[in-house]
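Human:
Take a look at this sequence-structure pair and walk me through the C-alpha cells.
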Amino acid sequence: MDYNNFEDGYAETGIGRVHYKFHRTQENERSIIFIPGLGGTTRVWTKLLQHLDNDMDVYLIDLFGHGRSDAPDIRYTIAEQTQAISGVVKSAGLRRYSLFGHSYGGWVAAYFEAMSNNAEALVLEDSAGLKEYIYDIKNSGMANEHRNMVLDFVKRSEGDLTAMNRIMDNDYNDAEILTSSVLARIGRPTLVLWGDRDAIIDPKYAVALSKHIRNSTLRIIPDAGHNPHYERPEPVAEALRVFVGSQRRMKNS
C-alpha cells in the first residue's frame, strides 16, 4: 500500500474542516481509521502502509490543529478532537470500522470509543491519557518540564502552535483522562501495542491500560521506542493483520 496513491478527502464538522487521506476497495469490509499522535499528520503512517494488505480500506486523519485540517478557535479538548473521527465516519459513509490511535491519537480514539462504542475494534499504540500516567507526571513535580519537552517536539511538527499549547493545557484535565471507569465502558475487542523501549510513556502503563479494558490483548513490540509503527512497521503490521483477521473470523463464525 503506497501513501502516494491515497486520495484526499475533507469532512465538515460543527467546529471545523477535517482533512483525511483514504485508500478504498470495492469490498469496503475492513475499514481502519488511523489517528496520529500529537503533532503528527497523515504522513506518519507511510512506513506502516507498505506492510498492510491492499484489500484493507484505510483512512488517515489529521486532527484539528494538525496538518491540513482546520485550526479553529476552540479549547482543543479530547471531546472536541473526537469530532474529527465522527466527521470522517460520516463523510466517508462508514458503517463498520476499527480505530488505530497512537499516543495522543490513542487517547482520542479510546475516549471516542468509551463514549460511543461505535467502532468494531480498537488498537491503542503507546497511548497517552491514562490516569496513572497523568498522575505520575503531576506528582513528580516535573509537569512543566514535561510540557516544555513535548512543546519543543511539536514546534518541529506541522501542528498549529496555538493549538498545541491549548492541547497541553488540557493534558491534565481530570474530566477527560482515561480513568478505569472510562476505560471500563469500552466493550469492543482491543489490541494494546507498545514499544518495549518507549522512553516517553513507560511500557508499565501498557499493562495498566490493558487491565482496565475488558476483552483486550497486550502485545509488546521488541526493539521499538514510542513510535513502533515507524521504527518496527513489520511486526506492527503483522499484529494488526492477526488482530483484524481474528475479528473477521469471529463475525463469520
Q: What stands out?
A: The chain has a mean pLDDT of 90.
